[in-house]
Fold this protein.
Amino acid sequence: MPPPPPILIENGTVITGGKTPAVLPNHSVLIENGLITRIAPKARGGRFAGKRIDAAGKVVMPGLVNAHTHFYSTFARGLTKTRPASDFVGVLKNLWWRLDSALTTEDCYYSALIPLLDSIRHGTTSLIDHHASPQAVPGSLNAIAKAVHETGLRACLCYELSDRDGARISKEGLEENASFIRQCHSSSRRESALKSNSQPNVTALFGLHAAFTLKDATLEKAAKLGHELGAGFHIHVAEAQSDQDYSQRHHRKRVVERLNQFGILGPQSIAAHCVHVNRREIDLLAETGTAVVHNPQSNLNNAVGIADVVTLMQWGVLVGLGTDAMTTHMLEELRVALWAQHIRAQNPSVAFGEVVSALFGNNPEIAARALRLPVGELRTGCVGDAVIVDYDPPTPMEAGNVFGHLVFGISQAAVDTTIVGGRVLMENRRLALDLDEPRINARARELAAKLWKRL
Ligand SMILES: [Zn+2]
């Protein structure tokens, strides 16, 4: 695809994001060849022949990152045919493992399209997904990649390898990860040969479900294959106490220690949740540079506990924020993360800086590793992923108090425009894509109804 024409976003209040976000009133952001090439006060904007977007009375900020989600869970919305679960493993057995086992390849494609379009509406532009469809493993990641390409967003995909459905499906999971990783490698080589500033929209990690559904032999095969392919791993870690209990009972090791012995941890790897980890495990996560992704709404919904985000960060772990498919709205997840930390500590003054940094400082770093691109920040040289939010601050806003505006104000405002790599995906709250959304929703409803019958 040729690079989109240059875009100049003018007159907005720019929040740069990143580790130390700056607030730049009445600045312009220039995006050329998919990259941010200049951020300057309006007066120095000069002559410009490309597309101009007026952001007066609005905030311009980086496209947000969702560091852990599951597109396939879309078809669970409104599903009533499940037995109530009394614990986390019950939630998996009564709902998720029944649902994912009924997914077809077409279901994978449509169930991805819906949250991707929703992400555009909420200003989320990069997503790290974890996919399962045990009866439709081969080609499932390509079906999702097709949806990602059609929406113009960025995503890092993986297939969740597991032994829960037997040896044949476990083998298919290994092969789906390996072939998709190889495919992503070769397409990024092809794109970079074509153009030096090309931006691959889809990349891959090696997916693993969780330690308690993976035998030692399977972990060993996955680790060997992942290392040969130079891929990091994406796995659920100590989401519920039952994961630790199982690991101690069957392997006489804590979950993180077991994964470390197989070489699953590392700076390219993502450990989702880590609600139930001890000091030794936190040290291992920090020493290996493994990213931990916190998913507070999911943890509260499944009643598994609340991760100790403050301690994880204090002890040197890179902690990001995901939604585990509970929402595509990262600022909603951010708010819940904060309230959950307050309840956890029984202290209304903790974790403010930590949770906002997880989203605006750490998620960009996690996404940059996964997507191999400088994403998540409005800075010269970063990719041109920007969102314009309909927020004219009613109180003074500057670097020192911007976190308060993000949590209490910007989170409550509508996203007006979403841009990825300099391509406008939504403008004036209307999607600017060549996709027939009513038809997509109608087909998704048909497929979901059929899937529910198969359960
Ligand atoms: Zn998950």
